[in-house]
Q: What sequence folds into this?
């Protein structure tokens, strides 16, 4: 059964606003996770990919419809891997990123891409 998956580039979303996130990457990741956990979306699953110091703000694992993935190296590789796996299962995937290289990689897999600004508008009302 095809599901809809929202795949979130955590670093890209957090970094899209100059609100001091760089002083507390873990805290910024935790705030984003909290907003995604209660967001009213039509997606069957939301996957938040975190890298670097941001991983300290949220443990890897599932919390209802929200799954957090800790990138072992760089976030782009983890996002591409998650996108490919979801597409192989036949799921419809929307990737949230402003990274042009990543956009091209996931579009080549058949994913749609939306901007961090779009996601923030959705989860903040």
A:
């Amino acid at each position: 059964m095809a599901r809809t998956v929202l795949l979130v580039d955590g670093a890209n979303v957090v970094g899209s606003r100059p609100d001091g996130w760089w002083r507390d990457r873990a805290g910024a990741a935790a705030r984003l996770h909290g907003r995604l956990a209660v967001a009213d979306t039509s997606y069957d699953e939301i996957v938040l990919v975190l890298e670097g110091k941001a991983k300290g703000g949220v443990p890897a694992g599932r919390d209802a419809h929200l799954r957090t993935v800790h990138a072992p190296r760089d976030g782009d590789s983890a996002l591409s891997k998650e996108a490919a796996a979801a597409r192989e299962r036949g799921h419809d995937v929307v990737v949230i990123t402003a990274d042009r290289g990543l956009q091209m990689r996931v579009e080549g897999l058949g994913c749609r891409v939306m901007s961090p600004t779009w996601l923030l508008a959705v989860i903040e009302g």
About this structure: Residues 11 and 108 are 22 Å apart (CA to CA).
